[in-house]
Structure formats: structure tokens, C-alpha cells
Write a structure and sequence with these properties.
The chain is an alpha/beta fold. Helix content is 24%, strand content 26%. The chain has helices at residues 42-48, 98-101, 150-153, 159-170, 187-196, 211-217, 228-233, 251-255, 278-282, 296-309, 323-331; strands at 3-8, 17-22, 30-39, 65-72, 84-87, 90-92, 113-114, 133-137, 142-143, 177-181, 200-205, 221-224, 238-243, 258-266, 287-290, 315-318, 338-342. Strand 10, helix 5 and strand 11 (200-205) form a beta-alpha-beta unit. The radius of gyration is 20 Å and the shape is globular.
């Protein structure tokens, strides 16, 4: 059973620290990946600190994984030693339910297996990408095309697909007016994608402090939501609003910004409920919905789109020793726009 060096949480309140973990033996359809980089997602922090429910420890977070294939099982056909690959938020699903058969494994009716903190088919707790190696069944390993640096590709496996999927599902493209709420790890990817898809892109942020960045990333317009005039000026404007913030918002106020048949899609996951008035939906046939990452086929589509349009995440690469500092900086919004761990520093 292969051993990997990792960084793990041992309780909800303790800092993460070094830990040697055991990976499963390579099965006939398994792929062994030497992890080169792993992004830090806000959901890592929520999970290890028990904010989304009780966690099992020790826990190795990380579901934005980029690396190189170093071994394959005897029946593997999709990947070969030396391939540049990625692993996102899930590592298995039933494969048989209607959701899985249509390539929407994230909505597996029997429950997809998360990359960390979940129970795998072998009954063992899954451990994530803050580690040197991982073993994953071939169907949940993505190809990272040439032209995308591995460090900039890592956040695409969560932040990328999380914003790409609703843009595809709810109507991107020329002639569409799209707003991205929040300019953080998720929001900056939403701006890049929406612009590349041909939409007219607006950033809605609390203040104008990141306006220069927003315009550099591809936004056509940038407005401060702390200014009440913003909601009056932009009423009835947008075909699609993607809300990336994990904090409570005034849903009715944002719904008022939608045009006829417009959609407000939540990809942020605040712990509090988000109340909404029925009249905000009834008037002009507005939609308030959510989106959860994307299936494996769409995630591969997203990676190929990124290669074609030269899109990667804006990142700050850190050694493993800085992970706990990075967590605090994420909570303070002190990052533009995604931390990525250089896993060679785990050795």
C-alpha cells in the first residue's frame, strides 16, 4: 500500500500539520497520480473546521488537484504514464443511476464520493490533494491539455467548473448580459469564462476596490452593491446573474436586476438560509436556482475550453508550511485570487 506525505487536520480547531497517509493499492482500473499542485478552496476550510457538519479526522483536504500519472492498472485505457491530469471534487459514483448515465455524476442518486472526507467503495475515508500522491479510478481523472500550466490549472477543477457550468446551463454567449456577484476565487473565473463566451459582463461587488482587476480580467462594467443607486440603475438588466459569494445576500434585491426569464444562480454556499419573496419570482418570470460543480464530461469540456482560450486561474503558489496562514488570508479576502500548494514542499 503506497505511502504519501500529506498535510492534515486532526480536529476542527487545530492547525493543519504533516501526516503520512496510506493510499490504496493500484486496482485494475486505477490511476496513480503524483500530485504537483493543489488549490485551496474555501470549502476546505468549512469542512475541516466542521462548519458544514461533523467531520472525521485526521482529514486531508484538497479537491483541486493537478499532477502527472506515474502508474496505471492493467485495464486502464484512458490514461498513460506521463499524462498531465487533474482530479476535482469527486472520485467515484455509482455509474448506473440516471444522473450518472447522463454524465452528471455530481448528482449521483446514490451519492457521489467526494475527493476527501467521504466514504469510498472500500469503506475507507477518502483523503484529498494536500498530499504527494493519490489513487483514483480512471473515469474520474481529467486530462489537462498542453497550454495550461499545471499550477494555474489546479483551481479549474473546482473554481473553474463551478462557474463554467451555470454559464453553459443558463445562457452565456453573444447578446447576453451576465453579472458575476463577487470577485474572488470563484468570481474571477466567472468573469474570464463569461467574457470568453462572448457575453457582456458586469461585476457586482460590495465596493469598487477591485474594479481595476475586474476590468483587466475581462469585465465590461463594474458596480458597487453598497451603493443603493446600483440596484435602481441596473433594474431589469441581466439575463443571468451568477452569485459566487458564500455570505447572506438580499436575494429579492438581486432578482430585481433580472430581465424577463432571467436567472439568478447561486454557487456560493452560505450557512444561513436565503429567503425569497414569491413575488420576486412571479414578476417577469424570474428563476432562483443553484449549481453544483459539473459532471466529468463537462469538466473535461471546460479544461479544453480553457486551453483554447488561454484561460487559467490567477494564483499565488505557496509551500505547505504556509497552508494555515493561507486559510486565514482566505477568510480575510487577502488573496487574488487562489492559493495553490506546491506539493513538492511536502517531501
Amino acid at each position: 500500500m503506497p505511502t504519501a506525505n500529506a498535510y492534515a487536520a486532526t480536529s476542527a480547531k487545530s492547525p493543519l500539520g504533516p501526516l503520512a497517509i496510506q493510499r490504496r493499492e493500484l486496482g485494475p482500473r486505477d490511476v496513480l497520480i503524483e500530485i504537483k499542485f493543489c488549490g485551496i478552496c474555501h470549502s476546505d476550510i468549512h469542512t475541516v473546521r466542521g462548519e458544514w457538519g461533523e467531520a472525521t479526522y485526521p482529514l486531508v483536504p484538497g479537491h483541486e488537484i493537478a499532477g502527472i500519472v506515474t502508474g496505471v492498472g492493467a485495464q486502464v485505457k484512458k490514461h498513460a504514464v506521463g499524462d498531465r491530469v487533474g482530479v476535482g471534487c469527486m472520485v467515484d459514483s455509482c455509474g448506473d443511476c440516471p444522473s450518472c448515465r447522463r454524465g452528471e455524476e455530481q448528482h449521483c442518486l446514490k451519492g457521489m464520493v467526494g475527493t476527501y472526507g467521504a466514504t469510498g467503495r472500500d469503506g475507507q475515508l477518502t483523503q484529498g490533494g494536500y498530499s504527494t500522491h493519490i489513487v483514483v479510478t480512471e473515469d474520474f481523472v481529467l486530462k489537462i491539455p498542453e497550454g495550461i500550466a499545471l499550477d494555474a490549472a489546479a483551481p479549474l477543477l473546482c473554481a473553474g467548473i463551478t462557474t463554467y457550468s451555470p454559464l453553459r446551463r443558463w445562457g452565456e454567449g453573444p447578446g447576453k448580459k451576465v453579472a458575476i456577484v463577487g470577485l474572488g476565487g470563484l468570481g474571477h473565473m466567472g468573469v474570464k469564462f463569461a467574457r470568453a463566451m462572448g457575453a457582456e459582463v458586469t461585476v457586482l461587488s460590495q465596493s469598487l476596490s477591485k474594479k481595476e482587476d475586474g476590468l483587466r480580467l475581462g469585465a465590461h462594467h463594474y458596480h458597487a452593491t453598497k451603493d443603493p443607486e446600483t440596484f435602481k440603475k441596473l433594474a431589469g438588466t441581466f439575463d443571468l446573474i451568477v452569485n459566487t459569494v458564500s455570505a447572506k445576500i438580499d436575494v429579492d434585491a438581486y432578482l430585481s436586476l433580472l430581465a424577463l426569464d432571467g436567472a439568478l444562480v447561486n454557487v456560493g454556499a452560505p450557512p444561513e438560509p436565503l429567503p425569497v419573496s414569491a413575488f420576486s419570482l412571479i414578476m417577469t418570470r424570474r428563476v432562483f436556482t443553484g449549481s453544483l460543480i459539473g459532471g466529468i464530461p463537462q469538466t473535461q469540456e471546460m479544461l479544453d475550453f480553457c486551453a483554447k482560450h488561454h484561460i487559467g486561474a490567477d494564483i499565488e503558489v505557496i509551500p505547505a508550511s504556509k497552508i494555515n496562514d493561507a486559510y486565514e488570508r482566505v477568510l480575510a479576502s487577502d488573496i487574488r485570487y487562489r492559493f495553490v500548494i506546491d506539493t513538492s514542499t511536502l517531501k
